[in-house]
Each structure stands twice: as structure tokens, then as C-alpha cells.
Design brief:
The protein is mainly β. The chain has three helices and eleven strands; from the N terminus they run βββββαβββαβαββ.
């Protein structure tokens, strides 16, 4: 179990914008009875990281990965992969490991979700907007919980389960943004 400060950095037409969230991410040891797999062995606590852009949109780094959808194993693999947490105290997530990023055409409507691909962020977020990096650092700060539901009030009542929504193959479910509703 590690507390991580996950930060999104965006270059919005020459202005560097950041958004962060402290999350608790962990995986239990593998169970040799099941060939080394530990079903439901990973977990995430806290809010997804997001950044408020100059055009009013929000860019959210969800807990969703293409391989595992919103299974905590996928996020943990992406964020923690290849890092010896006894010696690596901060790192950037490689572009091909970044979990799904989304924005909303209308932040009050979860059905308006649009997937954002880091290499082509301008197409979705507007001219001059580029994803800088996703940075992860070990921290002792408290886990952030409840902040994202202030920006997206529908999260508290979100009941979509395993649903592809919106444009560009965006996928969200009730575990995509926070461990607390």
C-alpha cells in the first residue's frame, strides 16, 4: 500500500496547468494457488487526478485502462509498473502506460464523455492544448476524497456499470473516478 501524489501536467497554449490527487494504491501478494494471480488483489482509494483547463473543460486521468477497464489491477499496473518503490520515489508514467483520460462536453452530463488520447489531445481539448506528463511521487499527504464530486456532482449517484459512452471509445463506470461517492 502506497500513497501516491499523481499529477497531470498540461500545456494550455503556453500556460502550464497542473492538477493532482493523493491516492492510496496497492496490491496484495500473489496467491500461488491460482497460478500467481490474485483476483481483486489491487485497490485504489481516493479521487482521480484532474486539471481545469483555460477553456473551462476538465481533463481527468481515470482509473480505467484499455486492458483491465476499471479493474484496480490495470491502474496499479500502469502507475506502479517497473518501479522499485524502495528506491524510486518519483517518476513519469510512460505515454503507452497512461490510463484512459477523458473530458466532458458538459461537466454536468456523464453521457457527454469524450476520450482524450495524449498524443492527439488538441483534437479533443482544442488548439494549443498538449498533455505534458503524468508524474507520480510517493507521499505522506492524506488521500484526497470528495473533491472530484464537487466538480462533477453526478458522481455521487453514478450508476452506469461497464458502459462504453461518448466519443473516441471512452469507457466509464462507477469506479472510474473515485473510491468514495
Amino acid at each position: 500500500m502506497r500513497r501516491l501524489l499523481v499529477t497531470i501536467e498540461v500545456n494550455d497554449n503556453g500556460t502550464i496547468l497542473t492538477g493532482s490527487s493523493v491516492q492510496k494504491v496497492g496490491c496484495r501478494a500473489a496467491n500461488p494457488t491460482y497460478g500467481g494471480l490474485d483476483v481483486d488483489g489491487c485497490y485504489i482509494e481516493g479521487d482521480a487526478a484532474y486539471v481545469h483547463l483555460k477553456n473551462g473543460q476538465y481533463l481527468i486521468l481515470t482509473y480505467v485502462t484499455d486492458e483491465y477497464r476499471a479493474d484496480p489491477r490495470g491502474y496499479a499496473d500502469s502507475i506502479l509498473d517497473r518501479h522499485d518503490l524502495t528506491s524510486d520515489f518519483s517518476w513519469d508514467v510512460p505515454e503507452d502506460e497512461i490510463p484512459q483520460m477523458v473530458t466532458f462536453k458538459n461537466s454536468l452530463d456523464p453521457d457527454s464523455v469524450v476520450r482524450v488520447y495524449p498524443a492527439d489531445a488538441e483534437q479533443t481539448l482544442g488548439s494549443g492544448v498538449k498533455i505534458g506528463k503524468i508524474h507520480v511521487a510517493l507521499t505522506d499527504l492524506p488521500v484526497n476524497e470528495g473533491n472530484i464530486s464537487k466538480v462533477f456532482p453526478w458522481i455521487k449517484d453514478f450508476v452506469h456499470l461497464s458502459k462504453n459512452l461518448g466519443e473516441n471509445g471512452a469507457y466509464i463506470d462507477n469506479n472510474s473516478f473515485t473510491s468514495k461517492r
